[in-house]
Structure formats: C-alpha cells, structure tokens
Amino acid sequence: MKYIIANFKMNQTPQETKEYLIRLLPKVEEGKHKLVLCLPATSMGVASFMLNGGEVSIGGQNLCDEEEGKCTGEISGKMLKNAGCEFVIVGHSERRVKFKETARSINKKIKIALKNRLKVILCVGENLAERNTLKMLETLKVQIEEALKGLYENELENIIIAYEPVWAIGSGKVPTNKEIETSVKAIRKVITDDFSAKAGEAITVVYGGSIDAKNAPTINRAKGLNGMLIGGSCLDAGTFATILREV
Ligand code: PGA
Predict the structure, then answer these.
(1) Measuring from atom 3 of ligand 1, which residue has the nearest CA?
(2) For the chain, what is the mean pLDDT?
(3) 45 CA distance to ligand 1 centroid (A)?
C-alpha cells in the first residue's frame, strides 16, 4: 500500500479542516492508500475527533528540538503524540530555508520524535544551484547522513524519506520519472552503505513537489517509490480526492 501524505502547510482554520474532512472522508476508499494528513497544530483536535483512530492518520509539520519547557511558541513531540499524531514532518525545505533549521536541530528533532513513538517524514532535496552544479546526489547523501546520525537500523522502520527537490516545490515543475528514480536509488544506496542492504531496500521513500491531479498517476509509476507528499494540491478536497482516485 502506498503512502499519500498531505502537507497543509500554514493553511486551514479548525473550522475549515472540519468542512474539508466532511467533503473528503466519504471519498476515501478503505485499504487503498496509507493516507496521512499533516495538519496545522490548531486543526489537530477537530481532525482527531472526526477521524477517531480510523484508517486516516494525522501528522504534524514540525516539532521542537527540545523535549519540554522554556520554548515559547513551540510544540513538543509529546504534545503531537497526545494530540493524535502518528507522524511528523521533519526538515522540510521551507523550515530549513525560512527558519534556518540546522542539520543538528533536524537530528535532535528526529530523535525526540522517535522517542515519542512518532513516525518521521524526513524531507531531503537539492536546490537549483546544487542541481546545476551536479551536486545533487552529494546533497542528498549529506542531508540524510546528518539527519540520521546516531540512529539504529531498527529505527529506520519509523522513518520515511521524502525526496523533495527544492526547485520543484510549489513551482509547477516536476522531475521526470527517470530523474526521480535516480534520486530514489541514490537515497537507498546511502541507507545501504550506512546501515545494510536490507535497510536500503526496506526504507520507505516518497516523492514531493508540484504533484497535481494530472501528473500524479505518472509519478506514482516511478520505480522504487513508496508514495507521494502533496502540498498545494491537497488544499481543495475535490482535487485531492481526484488524486486519491487516480493513483
Ligand atoms: P507542493 O508542496 O506540492 O505544493 O509543491 C510539497 C511540499 O512542500 O511538501
């Protein structure tokens, strides 16, 4: 079963999430996808109530790199778990760039998430300059190795790696399936080299960046891919339901 992960970013009030779920849920086919909705923190209460521990999972979009205490405005792993989250996105490029999230902080966040029994959706991807200077695969390797530093192989079953080229996010540009496959292969090789061949094969890898109802079926056929991470196109329940139907 493939993952379809929706990243709502800073969109939707709790009321809007409620209305969205009323539209979306009747269109979700049971047992077809592993569907994860990464919601704004303020929408988690209503979503958790409406989803009621069913097939559709909730995820956070970020967590604090400290466990609790003097971090005004932050959300802890423990809070996300208690709010009904099963997943959390870590290291999204918007956080790396806009909020200056460092590799060390990303590594700490992953460890805290795992400690709180949250599955991690780790975002990695090259920017345009790195792509143009052919440093793309090196970038992926560094980002993955820094993020997973100190983890044990058995913890990888709770890690999803989302390949999200920065230049593809929200741009309407998508790599070809061949390009996606090259990156997915490179990601699996990093895991193979650092952990084991079994781990490299087993790690869950999804693609994200400008997926829409039109290109989703094609991207879904990329070899070695275990699913997708969708931003802009998840915001309208009708469009998102179309994607779910078509893949
Ligand atoms: P996009 O966003 O689908 O709007 O490109 C994906 C993401 O940022 O996770």
Answers:
(1) 231
(2) 97
(3) 24
pLDDT at 132: 87
- Phi–psi pair at 195, nearest 5 degrees: -120, -85
Q: What confidence category does residue 134 fall into, taking pLDDT thresholds of 50, 70 and 90?
A: confident
Active-site residue set: 92, 164
Q: How many angstroms separate the alpha carbon of residue 230 from the centre of ligand 1?
A: 5
- Residue closest to 211 by CA, chosen among 197, 195, 191, 225: 225
Number of structural domains found in the chain: 1
The alpha carbon of 199 and the centre of ligand 1 are apart by a number of angstroms equal to: 27
Q: Which domain holds residue 211?
A: 2-67+74-246
**Mutation test residue for ligand 1: of 229, 240, 243, the one with most atoms within 8 Å of CB:** 229
Pocket lining for ligand 1, CB < 6 angstroms: 7, 164, 169-170, 208-211, 229-233
Mean pLDDT value of segment 192-213: 98
Supply the CATH number for residue 103's domain: 3.20.20.70
Please tell me what DSSP assigns to residue 206.
E
Q: Give me the torsion for CA of 221, 222, 226, 231, rounded to 10°.
A: -90
H-helix or E-strand containing 36?
Answer: strand 33-38
The string over 51-80, giving b where at least 16 C-beta atoms fall within 10 Å of a residue's C-beta and e elsewhere, is beeeebbbbbbbbbbeeeeeeeeebbbbbb
Query: pTM, whole model, 2 decimals?
Result: 0.97
pLDDT at 245 (0 to 100):
95
